Task: inverse folding
């Protein structure tokens, strides 16, 4: 369900569950964690994270795996692997690029936000929709969003749970580049500004950026977000919202 591919100057981690809109199961979370550790040992100038298919980058956590009748403690344990994945991406030693091959919802937006750069296919939409399920971001992505957007814009997005176009989010600074559909698979062209640089340059640029993010303090804030989200897990609002969603399916 998670594919890892090493190219000459970069590596690709691909969510490979298109029939489920690349929703992340508990098993995929563990595979992602292992994949991040695997590619960290490679001599690469950048890491690309993308999804299979042409409709959805990632629909977030698989509701059948992550939203059952869990206690707060059980929810925390189920969420924490993805927090470690997001922190591993944010603290990765070279630049990370999320190639958004389609729409993203909830945890899919959290995963994208953990990356340094977001390149989106044209005519795609994105939403931090967790509050519609009676919860909040649970992988640490809300904390990261405050680092990537103006705090008031991030706050509004998290509370209102709006779906926004790639063009709007490019104006806000969340999307860095919009890619025509017929160019989305041309990685050599898309990554040219990164792979033209030396490996040492890429390490030093990322080192400087990580200092700005204050990585140690960031991890603690992300842990707190996971705990806060877990406290909402067994609320009536969350249970009813999940039941409504699953009954639609």
Result:
């Amino acid at each position: 369900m998670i594919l890892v591919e090493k190219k000459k100057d970069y590596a690709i981690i691909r969510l490979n569950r298109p029939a489920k809109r690349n929703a992340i199961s508990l098993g995929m979370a563990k595979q992602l964690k292992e994949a991040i550790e695997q590619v960290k040992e490679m001599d690469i100038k950048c890491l690309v994270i993308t999804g299979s298919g042409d409709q959805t980058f990632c629909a977030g956590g698989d509701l059948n795996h992550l939203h059952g009748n869990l206690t707060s403690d059980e929810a925390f344990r189920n969420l924490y692997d993805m927090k470690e994945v997001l922190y591993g991406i944010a603290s990765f030693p070279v630049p990370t690029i999320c190639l958004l091959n389609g729409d993203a919802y909830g945890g899919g937006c959290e995963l994208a936000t953990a990356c340094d750069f977001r390149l989106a296919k044209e005519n795609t939409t994105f939403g931090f929709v967790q509050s519609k399920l009676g919860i909040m971001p649970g992988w640490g992505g809300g904390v990261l969003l405050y680092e990537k957007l103006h705090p008031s814009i991030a706050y509004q997005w998290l509370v209102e749970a709006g779906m926004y176009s790639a063009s709007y989010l490019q104006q806000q600074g969340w999307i860095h580049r919009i890619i025509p559909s017929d160019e989305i698979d041309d990685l050599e062209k898309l990554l040219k500004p990164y792979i033209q640089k030396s490996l040492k340059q890429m390490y030093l640029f990322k080192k400087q950026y990580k200092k700005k993010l204050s990585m140690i303090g960031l991890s603690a804030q992300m842990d707190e977000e996971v705990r806060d989200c877990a406290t909402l897990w067994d609320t009536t609002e969350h249970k009813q919202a999940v039941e409504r969603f699953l009954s639609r399916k």
